[in-house]
Amino acid sequence: MKPTFLLIAVAALAGIVSVTVTASRAADGGNAPVFVTQIPDGYRDWRLISVAHEEGNLNSLAAVLGNDVAIKAYREGKVPFPDGTVIAALHYSHTASEENNKVFGRAQSFVPGNATNIQFMIKDSKKYSATGGWGFGHFKDGKPGDDALMRTCFPCHNQGKARDLVFTRFAP
Amino acid sequence: MKPTFLLIAVAALAGIVSVTVTASRAADGGNAPVFVTQIPDGYRDWRLISVAHEEGNLNSLAAVLGNDVAIKAYREGKVPFPDGTVIAALHYSHTASEENNKVFGRAQSFVPGNATNIQFMIKDSKKYSATGGWGFGHFKDGKPGDDALMRTCFPCHNQGKARDLVFTRFAP
């Protein structure tokens, strides 16, 4: 192959790649989802929103915590949540407590086992405009979930539009 | 009956009552248990120690929160807990969430239902010396538990001497 032909071939290939990227962006309306890739500082010291237990494949016990903006909005019943709201769901494996059961004298007690993942919802109506104003985050052993996993968050939460995509209610 | 005899009879009766009270005090070693009768201020804003699920008669989901002294002691692994430690267990009925199950497409989700009771452990080694340095409190609808119920706290918690009578471990 002569150098001239090689150059044209490379240029043509580059053109195809470029068209593909453009098409992909167009499919997202020029607005691809942005996910949370950093764990917010200090979340373990936030106040309690609620607790939860999921059976089935999840088999989890959770504590749901909120930063000050989140707690204030919950208490005021404010929907949509204001920018700056951060909600954290700390998931643990739902694990039988042998030491508690011994004290109770029967098998009835479940406590947090291993931390399975931590999930976040961060409200920033501009940055996360493609996903209802919420940035979704999922961290396992400190590492963010992959793109395929992260794309499942918004369609599911988007079923909860009446409460601004937030399922968890404030426990008394 | 003559007035004189009546007076003596009343005095004798008073004497019996007095002896009974004294005997009851002596059985406690002059140190009857003192319970927590006031709900500590601000407990709902305290930080998270852990969460728990009890099956059986309790059927509860719980959030266990601690004041600053408690959280610091837990993080430092300090046992016994210092005076000033307060631990709160917020118990809710373990209740199926129909709205969550609808989103999941299966019955798997449990959330806090009614608040069933709030329990406290307050460390004050002098005030609560009769019960391992811990004052125990139990409140249902804001009202403290009766004496019979309250007397069950210490004997059960006293099985956990290695961790200063505290069963709940700190969740990561």
Report on this model:
The structure is a homodimer of 172-residue chains. Chain A is an alpha+beta fold and 172 residues long. Chain A folds into two domains: 1-32; 33-163, 3-Layer(bba) Sandwich (Chalcone isomerase), CATH 3.50.70. Chain A is 29% helix and 29% strand. Chain A contains five helices and six strands. Chain A has helices at 3-27, 68-76, 98-104, 147-150, 153-157; strands at 47-54, 60-66, 86-96, 109-123, 134-140, 143-144. Chain A has a six-stranded antiparallel sheet. In chain A, a hairpin with a 2-residue loop joins strand 5 (134-140) and strand 6 (143-144). The longest helix of chain A has 25 residues, at 3-27. Chain A is globular. The interface between A and B is large, with 39 and 39 residues.
Oligomer: homodimer
Q: What is the name of the CATH superfamily of the largest domain in chain A?
A: Cytochrome P460
Strand order, sheet with most strands of chain A: 1-2-3-4-5-6
- CATH topology of the largest domain in chain A, anyone? Chalcone isomerase
Helix content of chain A: 25-40%
Structural class of chain A comes to alpha+beta
Measured by DSSP, the beta-strand proportion of chain A falls in 25-35%
Shape of chain A: globular
CATH level-1 class of the largest domain in chain A: Alpha Beta
Enumerate the spans of chain A where pLDDT stays under 50 for 5 or more consecutive residues. 1-27
Largest sheet of chain A: 6 strands, antiparallel
How do the helices and strands follow one another from N- to C-terminus of chain A? HEEHEHEEEHH
Please report the distance between the alpha carbons of the first and last residues of chain A.
76 Å
Largest inter-chain interface?
A-B, 39 and 39 residues
Compute the average pLDDT of chain A.
Answer: 87
Number of domains of chain A: 2
Number of strands of chain A: 6
| Total helical elements of chain A | 5
Radius of gyration of chain A, whole Å: 22 Å
